[in-house]
Design brief:
Largest interface: A-B, 33 and 38 residues
Number of strands of chain B: 10
Shape of chain A: flat
Strand order of the largest sheet of chain B: 6-7-8-3-9-10
Number of strands of chain A: 2
Shape of chain B: globular
Strand content of chain B: 25-35%
Strand content of chain A: under 5%
Structural class of chain B: alpha/beta
Radius of gyration of chain B: 17 Å
Helix content of chain B: 25-40%
Strand order of the largest sheet of chain A: 1-2
Oligomer: heterodimer
């Protein structure tokens, strides 16, 4: 509980885990636009799949991309574990509640083939998408994600909101901890009572007021540097051969999945 | 005739009508002058800087910058292109994800191309001894680094006048010494708000005190 926990330069704050440098990999070299567009297309296609062969290809693609991203598998699996636990419970409840051909009888419960299949389909879809998103987008620094979205035609105001959020979430986080520390040093112990609710209400209220104040000061500072509504993105993106080949490969995979699904 | 770059004539300002912050304040800033502005907390130093660049408007009195009376937003847009204000809290000033983008933001707004803006940013950073900072994430800089980068964001616009709001506040000795060195070597006309005697001694040529909403006395330094 040291006070040093929110030193901004240490990067240990946990919240800003997204900024930890990513391992160098083939995927990191790819144009951010390619990564965003391919992820979107892939995820969209996967949500329509319901046959085992195509779903297995989807999952294999996710696994291959994760391998290419060179992220430690252990951490990825840990992260997916929460989702999978939830999906298992969901699958079981589906198996029990959807009527159909009965496969097993467990006590008073009947597990139906239709229910189990649906649960399995959802499990495979979710894992395929999760692995792909982690591999392609998770290896991207958030500002790059903002630029990629901007270049792909997402309205400028949305990307600005994203970029400003990235920049100031940590500042607000530090402010929150300063206030929490100030409360704690005066012996504040959260409990289920009116005093706690009111104190947290004050804390959140003050954070909102401070954030509003800060946003006004930031705007003032921007105006002083000649900002009048046009925000210039500095990054220039160059299209390389590997971007073309990756896009082609992605289109092929999506096509194969669709063909297998229809057949 | 050498007109002052900035002339404040009989300015009054109040956030709250009961307690005016500035009350009939007049102040001249001559070309090449490095004026130190001191005064207690809440004496209106920051308010004064914000009035000069038109972030807030005076209740009465005139703001004359570069020989012209400035009143509307359009007037102040031109002022802001040539008068650089460095904010008290660097976190207010640095809003881009990376240092390079933040420093290039001003030049881009002045109409520079991406390449020109990048070059101007890189040169400014180098002049401040911040080579290699281009791709650093702004929020991860230390307090001293943030302060220097905030200064760089303003210097990259090549302003004629610098308005500095407590530039040495909250810095350790090494960072403060480095900042003092840099500020002392700048060619710009400077209006410096600070509490620190060391900074005043090294940077300011004259010092005025803000008291009860008006300027009290000028102390010239040799």
């Amino acid at each position: 509980m040291g006070l040093g926990r929110h030193t901004t330069q240490s990067g240990q704050a946990g919240l800003m885990d997204i900024f930890t440098p990513q391992p160098a990999s083939y995927l990191r070299e790819l144009d951010p636009r390619v990564r965003v567009a391919c992820t979107f297309a892939f995820a969209l296609a996967v949500t329509f799949l319901s046959h085992l062969p195509s779903l297995i290809i989807a999952l294999a693609t996710g696994a291959l991309l994760t391998h290419l991203s060179r992220k430690p598998w252990k951490r990825i699996l840990k992260r997916t574990a929460v989702l999978n636990l939830f999906l298992l419970l969901l699958g079981l409840s589906l198996a029990v509640s959807i009527p159909g051909e009965i496969l097993y009888l467990v006590g008073p419960f009947m597990l139906s083939r239709e229910g189990l299949t649906l649960g399995l389909v959802i499990l495979l879809r979710a894992n395929a998408i999760l692995l792909t998103v982690t591999a392609l987008l998770g290896s991207m620094e958030p500002p790059n994600l903002g630029f990629a979205l901007y270049r792909l035609g997402v309205p400028a105001s949305f990307t600005h909101i994203l970029l400003f959020m990235i920049r100031y979430i940590e500042v607000i986080h530090v402010e929150y901890h300063r206030l929490r520390d100030a409360m704690q040093t005066r012996a504040f112990e959260p409990a289920t009572n009116l005093h706690t609710f009111r104190s947290f209400g004050y804390l959140i209220g003050l954070l909102l007021v401070r954030s509003l104040d800060r946003s006004n000061r930031v705007l003032a500072a921007m105006k002083c540097r000649g900002f009048y509504g046009r925000y210039h993105v500095m990054q220039t993106l160059t299209w390389e051969r590997r971007d073309t080949s990756f896009t082609v490969a992605a289109i092929l995979v999506v096509l194969v999945m669709i063909v297998l699904e229809i057949m | 005739m050498n007109d002052p770059l900035i002339q404040l004539k009989n300015l009054s300002f109040a956030y709250d009508a009961e307690r005016p912050v500035l009350d009939g304040l007049s102040l001249d800033l001559q070309r090449g002058q490095r004026l130190g502005l001191i005064g207690g907390n809440g004496s209106g130093k920051t308010t004064l800087l914000h009035l000069i660049v038109g972030l807030i408007k005076p209740r009465s009195g005139r703001v004359v910058v570069f020989g012209q009376t400035r009143s509307g937003e359009r007037d102040f847009k031109e002022v802001r292109r040539r008068v650089g204000l460095v904010f008290q809290d660097a976190d207010d000033q640095l809003f881009c994800p990376t240092v390079l983008e933040d420093v290039a933001f001003g030049p881009r707004n002045l109409g520079c191309s991406i390449e020109e803006a990048r070059e101007s940013a890189v040169t400014t950073l180098r002049n401040l001894g911040l080579e290699g900072f281009e791709n650093r994430v702004t929020y991860r800089l230390s307090g001293g680094e943030k302060r220097l980068v905030a200064l760089a964001t303003v210097l990259a616009m090549k302003p004629d006048v610098l308005l500095l709001d407590e530039p040495g506040g909250n810095l350790d000795e090494t960072s403060r010494a480095r900042l003092t060195e840099i500020l002392a070597s700048l060619p710009q006309t400077i209006l410096l708000v600070t509490h620190e005697p060391e900074l005043l001694n090294r940077v300011a040529t004259d010092v005025v005190r803000l008291e009860n909403g008006a300027v009290k006395g000028t102390t010239s330094r040799p």
